[in-house]
């Protein structure tokens, strides 16, 4: 991304092994993330920035210290590099690893190949070579599925719980899928888009709420005997959506927030009187990858449906435009 709004596909040198813990992956597919729109819209700086942090592909070469993946393996990687051995990783927060590094900051997987540092701690090999129809689902695991799953776990979605999901983008839809898999009794998707409502229902939503802001909160309370939802997932990151999520959470309930929330200010006193648990941040996707890969491999979940536009990598600029103009929820780039 040369500058905001200016995405170009250009030739770069092939990545090479630098550290013994590196792997070079020949990418099979990659995609454009909602968070890539932040620099695209000028909210984050962009200056000849390498883009992309979601990826699946075949390992081409590994450094001498890499033990868990080998050339020829098909791998799914997290959007945060992690060693998966430090104290923070072992506690399940690989996105906060002491060696954490964001893939979008300096690696860039909207590319034909990528050098992935700390390959053992970042990549997970699939049980074999996947059928082509599994590729979108495995790619979703790299970020949006892992993030939606983390949000549902952070919100303690589970049996007997009513879960409200604020946001009907790819992550919100994946959070609905996760809540359903985790056994939630009732899943309320907050959405105004007929197509996304349909997908939310496909993934397990039992109710749809179209109202937003205070009206949205009132509607959630109405559906939950005035109490609010046990578990609320915030997957947007705006002031309105965040406060809607806080307001929709019942006293003692859990809020999982994964929308990147640049300009959100949470009034301390509202959080104080809400009396809720909160957990969010960049998802430790690596924690969930082995389980998610297996669910996809066994065809028990089908997260690949979140991609509603597929383009060749050369047309990445059009993919950004389509997402920016909301003509697409999520764009898959083929290689
Ligand atoms: Zn670590």
Automatic annotation (TrEMBL):
Keywords: Metal-binding, Oxidoreductase, Zinc. Residues 170-264 form the Alcohol dehydrogenase-like C-terminal domain. GO terms for molecular function: oxidoreductase activity; zinc ion binding. The keyword Oxidoreductase applies. It comes from the Bacteria. Signal peptide: none annotated. Its cofactor is Zn(2+). Residues 20-118 form the Alcohol dehydrogenase-like N-terminal domain. InterPro entries: ADH-like_C, ADH-like_N, ADH_Zn_CS, GroES-like_sf, NAD(P)-bd_dom_sf. The keyword Zinc applies. It holds the Pfam family ADH_N. Belongs to the zinc-containing alcohol dehydrogenase family. This is IMP dehydrogenase. The lineage of its organism: Bacteria, Bacillati, Actinomycetota, Actinomycetes, Kitasatosporales.
